[in-house]
Amino acid sequence: MLKVLEYCLVTIFIAVALFISHWLGQQAYTWMPPQATAEAQRVDALFSFLVAIGAFVFLGLVGMMVYSALFFRAKPDDYSEGHPARGSVKLEILWTVAPTLLVLWIAAQNITIYNQLNILGLKQIVHFPIESPAYAATDQPKPVAEQIQVIAKQWEWGFRYPNQAASHELHLPVNESTRLNLQAEKVIHGFYVPAFRLKQDMVPGRNIGLVVTPTRIGKYRLQDSQYSGTYFALMEADVYVEPREAYNQWIANLALNPADTTNFAIAEQQHSPKTLFQTGWQTGSLGESVAKSDRLTEGDS
Amino acid sequence: MTNPAIASDPDPTESTQSPRSWRDYFRFSTDHKIIGVQYILTTFIFFLIGGLMAMLIRAELVTPELNLVDRPFYNALFTLHGTVMIFLWIIPFNAGLSNYLVPLMIGAREMAFPLLNAISFWLIPPAGVLLIASFLLPNGPAQAGWWSYPPVSLQNPSGQLVWVISLILLGISSIMGAVNFVTTIVWLRAPGMTFFRMPVLVWSVLSAQLLQLVNLPSLTGALILLMFDLAFGTSIFDPAGKGDPILYQHLFWFYSHPAVYIMALPAFGIFAEVLPAFTRNPLFGYRSLAIASLGIALVSIFVWVHHMFASATPDWMRITFAITSMLVAVPTGVKAFGWTATIWRGKLHLDTPMLFAMAGAAMFIFGGITGVMLASNSFDLHVNNTYFVVGHFHYIVFNTITMAIFAAIYFWFPKITGRMYAEGWGKLHFGLTFIGANLTFFPMHPLGLQGMVRRVASYAPEYQGWNVIASLGAFLLGVSTLPFIANMVASFLAGRRAPDNPWEATGLEWTTSSPPPRENFPEIPQVIFPPYNYGNPRAYGEEPLTQSGEGGSNDE
Fold first, then answer.
1. ipTM value of the model?
2. Which site among A188, A197, A211, A238 would you substitute to test the B interface, given the most B Cβ atoms closer than 10 Å to its Cβ?
């Protein structure tokens, strides 16, 4: 009788855990920034799947621990043995094989989704410095409508458009694949737009391609994601995803009247914020690198 | 089996039975127990320094704007916070605890190389002081994060060079320690202490120290090369001179990922000692947990690229290392299942060590799950270098490992000092730590998912809410150390006298006096039981266990 009751309770517990895990998996979508690319939807689906599985494992194990802490307490002076089980070959095999299969399943999901990410670049990059002819010859498996050069320096983003106009804001046509040629000047930077769910380090001396296909019109934030020195936190830029016509018009205008955007790092150095502790440590090479270059000159690459 | 520790003469300069005074802990000594305590006290000071830096960081992050520290100072704070907590708190603390316990647990009189042991320890204070003193340099200490990726780390040569020298010294200390631990565990086990009679803590120390031997030279090598770039004008890692910064990343992570397991394995070992003692159950699946320690060590050698999923790494490398990284979940899963099964249907005594161990094990499961998420390279492309990663690894290094360290301190405090700590204060410490840790580190996950990158002193206003919670938690963690320190000091001076085995635990360390005599055991014990022989009174010293008997058949 007691046995039956126990099985019922375990069944109910598993059912509740399954329900909560499923619910958390659905909630996971809302923990993310807006989905501005097709990639974002796939990454969020993977995250939802991981949250659901993770929540079930967590609830199962921690549920057992909490239940034990509540109901399996010893009397203060009772130091006799709890249960004599030293192990169970069956159980131990089960909990070695089950997680193996589980992580292989997760790995398979991950690989499937990674292959669906239309971000190119990565197959051909690396191993070949820019000069290497092998690199230049690699094919581009995917037609890209637009190529934009992204230049990261301490501490400023610069973008050069196909018509050679340059700006400190990134404009992208919606629903089209744009190839970003990522170049870093002195140190490693990271190209990261949270709404795109994509990140790629930019390494000096290597030309790394990243393809983005934004699907949602709006304004987003580009943030340097690889620590790049003193003013790293200020290295942000605005990203505008807009219809093709608006994009064309904008780059045409840009060619006529180059836009001027404030450089946060220079602004902060000129009016340094009042902080309680001022060290005066000179560690940024801001003076030489950015000050002379608030314009992205045509011939610097 | 011959036991060199018995045969070798005791150090003639120290009397074998001298009563120990507190002054001994501040003198040069080759006694593994004194060295162990020296490690523990020294590293705890660095823990407080690292914690102070963390509180300054969290204070700056209360508001989106910059208003407490300027940027170079902030960058120095997070760089040294990470370096101090890893290389001057967890790794050497574990070395200290292992120093104290391993010879006792395997029934040896001393470590294999007592002098080398002392040298390993005495490298740590100067290296640590050197690192902290770099705050006094004209341009401050290293400011490139604890990874110190070139080329950005090459831009502040003075502070970075001090950082490199300090880390090389600490690395040499760890390598010497590893040689000592592995030799001790392999050769100095008491008669009858077969490998499968060793406590899991000894297994996990063995696994962790093997990792030190295999992987640490890679970091030391990378640091020496970085030193050449910094000081001697080479450009091994500097792309401006055709160097390759990605090479540094590989060399760095080839050590620094296994370093996570070098830190975590002893914590898993602590759980395996504490949980059985306070559930009164034998450790469930002892053999599989012992082997899983080696399994974790082995797999962890092949996972380092998961730190570089967003770096200049090709697809095949990302996918291969995603799979290997996920496989770590298998042996760690075996551990987590074993702990849970040990707790299940036990007779639980929720004393302070047990509270810390259970909470640590539970939060490890959380950190392990986010770890599998990060191993999925498609998802990692989004959260790499964000606060999600920071939250994940603090669930490991603080909510698991530091919780385990506190469990260990409370559990073995009676053995080390011969006095009991105050239970009420211990529970208060646990409560504050548990709440503070979750308040601090949980909010980092939503922040990372929202896209807040790590290592920033100022951030977009929309991230402020979770940041305020995290900062409040961090201040609570700061407060939580006060009852701990008060308890430790007061109990050391005037605590109730501890019996030899206050927890009625199994394990050779509980069969000797508290604190143990100079050479640990009046006579070297003859081991006839598997470990965790709960339910058998003779296993925890209520009857003499030096003669062999039917207990030997208790092996699985």
1. 0.90
2. A188
